[in-house]
Design brief:
The protein is an all-alpha fold. It has 12 helices and no strands.
């Protein structure tokens, strides 16, 4: 078996870090040894931390984390593809006015740089920058909001903890220490199981992922089914549901991104391009108007 002295933190950073973690686990490194060294994402860190806390093996924990990582990559790819065109348009609408403004102004015999050094030009520029920042912030928010929470991770972590032979209640408590977002519901479920309550009883737990996990635990115990297999299957089901949800949201994303591009970024660009010319025309009309 490997010892912690043979594991260098640098080994687990960079591309292929997850592969190296899995190879070390298969070679005999314990979850305790790997949990403090793995320079991979937080999901693998949590899987190793739960395995170390419960005394479970590292191999199954890393394998489950790899499956989850594959699904997250699919989700991120769907979002990138859906947002790619809008991001390109946003980049053009943000950068093009900087080039077009002096060119178009020169065609009308206007010095755009002189205009923007004056107070009216500064006001226009500040307003355009504020609109641009608002549009880019809306785009970023719309893209980020469709990313799903890794609820499947909870089921995988409970399965990892139970692989060590601990009870369902103990497994839920161990996972609660690593999953703050679900900690309250996990501890409530653990308390309920400890006192013989069932998900149909009136006890304090959420109606989402933790409830489904608790129901699966009770059903597996009642039917005598392999509880770890049931939890892994539930995790795969949750990942499939999350991936479908993200893809559906990604398909709606281009239509949603039309608002910030056409109603915020486009007006900001037009302000920068047209303001020097409009100001010059207005000045000329004022000069020839009857006194």
């Amino acid at each position: 078996m490997r010892t912690s002295t043979t594991l260098s933190p640098a080994t687990f950073h960079g591309e292929g870090a997850l592969d190296r973690v899995q190879l070390h686990a298969e070679a005999g490194a314990t979850a305790y040894e790997l949990s403090g060294l793995a320079g991979v994402d937080q999901h693998v860190q949590r899987a190793l931390a739960v395995a170390a806390a419960s005394g479970a093996g590292a191999v199954a924990a890393v394998a489950a984390a790899r499956d989850a990582a594959d699904t997250r990559r699919d989700q991120e790819r769907a979002v990138r593809v859906a947002a790619a065109q809008t991001r390109a348009v946003a980049a053009v609408l943000t950068l093009a006015p900087l080039t077009l403004s002096p060119v178009i102004s020169a065609l009308f015999g206007v010095d755009a740089f002189a205009f923007y050094r004056q107070r009216p030009g500064s006001v226009v520029l500040i307003g355009a920058l504020a609109l641009t920042a608002t549009g880019l912030a809306i785009i970023r928010w719309l893209v980020r909001r469709i990313r799903s929470h890794a609820d499947d991770e909870v089921a995988d972590l409970v399965a990892t903890a139970m692989a060590s032979g601990c009870t369902a209640a103990t497994a839920l408590r161990v996972v609660a220490d690593s999953m703050p977002r679900h900690a309250t519901a996990l501890r409530a479920s653990a308390l309920g199981l400890q006192f013989g309550l069932r998900p149909t009883d009136n006890w304090d737990e959420d109606s989402g992922t933790v409830s489904r996990i608790t129901t699966a635990l009770v059903a597996a115990e009642t039917l005598g089914a392999p509880v770890i297999d049931v939890l892994r299957r539930l995790a795969r089901q949750l990942r499939a549901e999350q991936l479908a949800s993200v893809k559906a949201a990604a398909e709606r994303l281009p239509a949603q991104l039309t608002f910030p591009t056409t109603l915020v970024l486009l007006p900001a660009g037009l302000m920068v391009v047209a303001a020097p010319v409009v100001a010059e025309v207005f000045t000329g009309l004022t000069a020839i108007s009857p006194q």
